[in-house]
Write a structure and sequence with these properties.
Bound molecules: zinc ion
Number of helices: 4
Number of strands: 5
Radius of gyration: 30 Å
Oligomer: single chain
Strand content: 15-25%
Length: 138
């Protein structure tokens, strides 16, 4: 058995099974293949399955969404870099000193391991983890 994706003149796609490709040709010649939507016999083999084209479109849209998210994150990263002090790996210590030593209230950013972040949160220090997009990628 062979499954063909058929396209009708009305624009709809449907699937049909044939025992051989010759059977398909013969049925087509005798106008014995009817569109399941409009009964037209003007159908032909479709090179692209409808569900395949949907998938292609979806992955294209996903890529577009991912690109948009990345753009937003990059904007956010630039904002943070402009308005906050980079303390790098000293982030946990600096966050603590800001928390316990109230006179220093500047905003900082830097790196912390998930364990360090968890410790800070347990101490009641407000930290947020943000995805940090790589500028070099496009
Ligand atoms: Zn049709």
């Amino acid at each position: 058995m062979i499954k063909y994706n058929l396209k009708c003149e009305c624009g709809n796609f449907f699937e049909s099974w044939f025992s051989t490709s010759q059977e398909y040709e013969q049925l087509l010649k005798k106008n014995l293949i009817n569109c399941i939507y409009c009964q037209s016999t003007k159908v032909c083999k479709s090179v692209m399955a409808p569900n395949l084209s949907n998938k292609t479109k979806k992955s294209y849209e996903n890529k577009k969404i991912q690109k948009n998210i990345k753009k937003k994150l990059l904007e956010f990263r630039r904002y943070v870099e402009k308005n906050c002090k980079d303390v790098g790996d000293r982030f946990p210590q600096e966050a603590r000193s800001i928390h316990y030593d109230k006179k220093n209230s500047s905003s900082i950013y830097g790196k912390a391991t998930p364990e360090e972040t968890q410790e800070l949160l347990e101490e009641g220090i407000e930290v947020s983890t943000i995805p940090w997009p790589d500028k070099s990628e496009n």
